[in-house]
Design goal:
single chain; alpha/beta; Rossmann fold; six-stranded mixed beta sheet; four-stranded parallel beta sheet; 15 helices; globular; Threonine dehydratase
Length: about 300
């Protein structure tokens, strides 16, 4: 596992390629939450999500030979864009496997960033097979969007920046899907927090992380019928041990609570956030009695949303 010194060096190394995102507050939202809430705006990050951090971190860890052969991943969303832009910034070929059902706007973004797209059938088996074929043909290194230690460390730099600016935070909340952001956040809180706790949040309709912590082993979802499309994936063997060891709890929220929180963030912070991004604030409103009196930090994970198809 990474040391605090190595974590700080990693953050310094990727800082050239990422934005140091702002932190916002709202008196009205503080009033609704009945406590102080600070929002770390990763929706303002390059490519519109925190995933630029992990993608850059993973690529900087490659050897010169690995960089020459490139990287490959499969993604229909934020990680596809992050890998494409990070690779372009570092002069590395990027092969992106995307399901044919992925929105055209996301495919266009990947192409703009220089990613070489291979389309496949819209299922995980087809995605994995296509990525494996590219690996064999090109020698490219596979990057997992959440279950890769260098990706996890990169994602954790958002919380590191957060605590550097607001060291008095008592709790940092982050959404959990694949687990990369939550595991990285927990590591950063462990290194740089002063009596600070990490809490994960996910929908009831995709609550594998909640059940995994309860059972002590990685659980899966039979259905993922949630509006928080970025949280439909499950934990991996690299991030689950960190989450199990360093995350205090995982809170679950309902679909209507996610939509309400998202709407409030749009209206009161005047920013674009996607449903997955609103999940932690939904938990704060749901559990306000338990959070009262604490200074809360929320990582707003991303803002890539179809503005023609909003849930409110």
């Amino acid at each position: 596992m990474i040391t605090e010194k190595e974590f700080s060096k990693l953050h310094k190394d990727i800082s050239t390629y990422i934005h140091r995102t702002p932190v916002l507050q709202s008196r009205l939202l503080n009033g609704l939450a009945e406590t102080e809430v600070y929002f770390k705006c990763e929706n303002f990050q390059k490519t519109g999500s925190f995933k630029m951090r992990g993608a850059t971190s993973a690529m900087l860890a490659l050897t010169a030979e690995e960089r020459e052969k490139g990287v490959v991943t499969h993604s229909s969303g934020n990680f596809a864009q992050a890998v494409s832009l990070a690779a372009k910034s570092l002069g590395i070929p990027a092969y992106i496997v995307m399901p044919s059902s992925a929105p055209q706007v996301k495919k266009d973004a990947v192409k703009t960033y220089g990613g070489k797209i291979t389309e496949c059938d819209p299922n995980i088996k087809a995605r994995e097979e296509a990525a494996e074929k590219i690996q064999k043909e090109t020698g490219a290194t596979f990057l997992h969007p959440s279950n890769d230690l260098n990706v996890i460390y990169g994602q954790g730099t958002a919380a590191k920046e957060f605590l550097a600016e607001f060291p008095e935070l008592d709790i940092i909340l982050a959404p959990v899907g694949g687990g990369g952001l939550l595991a990285g956040t927990a590591l950063a809180v462990d290194f740089y927090g002063e009596d600070c706790t990490t809490i994960g949040v996910e929908p009831f309709k995709a609550d594998d992380a909640y059940r995994s912590i309860k059972s002590g082993k990685i659980e899966f979802n039979e259905t993922t019928n949630t509006i928080a499309d970025g949280l439909k994936t499950h934990l991996g063997d690299k991030n689950f041990p960190v989450i199990k060891d360093k995350v205090a709890e995982v809170i679950r929220v309902e679909e209507d609570e996610i939509i309400n929180a998202m709407k409030l963030l749009w209206e009161r912070l005047k920013i674009v956030v996607e449903p997955s991004c609103a999940v932690p604030f939904a938990a704060v409103l749901r559990e306000k009695e338990n959070f009262r009196g604490n200074r809360l930090g929320i990582i707003l994970s991303g803002g890539n949303v179809d503005v023609n198809n909003l849930p409110f």
